[in-house]
Amino acid sequence: MGTMRTFVGAAAVVTAAILVVVAIDAIPSPAVAQRRPRVERARGRRRPSRQRASIDARAQARRTIHAPPPDPLPPAPRVDETPDDAIVARAEETPADVEHDEDDHDEEEDRGVFAISAATHVPISIGASIYVRPPRFPIFARAYVGWMPEPYVTLVDGVLVDARAYDAAFSPHVRAIATGTTMASFSLGVAHQVLDLAAGYTLLHRMPQISRDLVARVMGQDGVAAPGLERRLPESFPAEVMIHMVHVELGARMVAFEHLVVRVGVRWDHAIAANADVSIDAGGEVELERAIDEAEHEVGERLATFTFFPSLVIALGYQF
């Protein structure tokens, strides 16, 4: 019995000694305590990439959960709420705008033309012309009024004398009659880009003073002069000459600086009728009246037969 107690007591002492040793071993030394944070940080750096990715995913999930909700999207329009006409108009909106802009551009380029020009028909006249063309139409109208200056008359007279249309003795009379002749014409034409083709009517009008010597020469050559007619005529007397003509003209019309107009063309005028009226008081002399009538008829026929001429047209003007 005593032996048993001794054994149990020894066992208890041994056990207590072991527990004390274990407890003492479990307490870390100061050096170990200082090395433990370094070890823990090294272990943290050596965490596998999968574990770091998992940590990042959890952090993103936390931010997503705590983020404010996004703004709600506007409701999509329902198809049945838009009329068919609105859908068609919306689909054609851009082409319509493009076409409208093109139309406006065309209207700006072709808004019609109104121009006034100084012109000359060499070697017939010097004057002015008016040109009108409506928008979007290639048809134009042109009116011209001019007069025949003395240098032009001299040039024409020299050509006719060289061509033996009459002798040089008639030159002074021709120059006196032709100088200052008024020329008026009206044309209708078609324009294509810079070219234009026109045709129309021309009127030559002159009211000269006719000398008795000229009448005697003309009537004497034609055999219609009455004996002593020149002695019964006044020294000079007024007359009126009108020549009706048609013309064609081909020209080129160019515009510079948006308003400056230059036109160059070639033209042909040809007489179709003419009449000459002499203002002489015959005093009841039948023979004199008959001679005057025959002279007027003869001059009219000659003018209608032999009056035709080409001309070079040059015009410079302003387009509004």
TrEMBL record:
Positions of region (Disordered): 32-81
Organism of provenance: Sandaracinus amylolyticus
MF terms in GO: nicotinate-nucleotide-dimethylbenzimidazole phosphoribosyltransferase activity
Protein name (record): Uncharacterized protein
Pro residues composition bias: residue spans: 67-77
InterPro entries: Nict_dMeBzImd_PRibTrfase_sf
Superkingdom classification of source: Bacteria
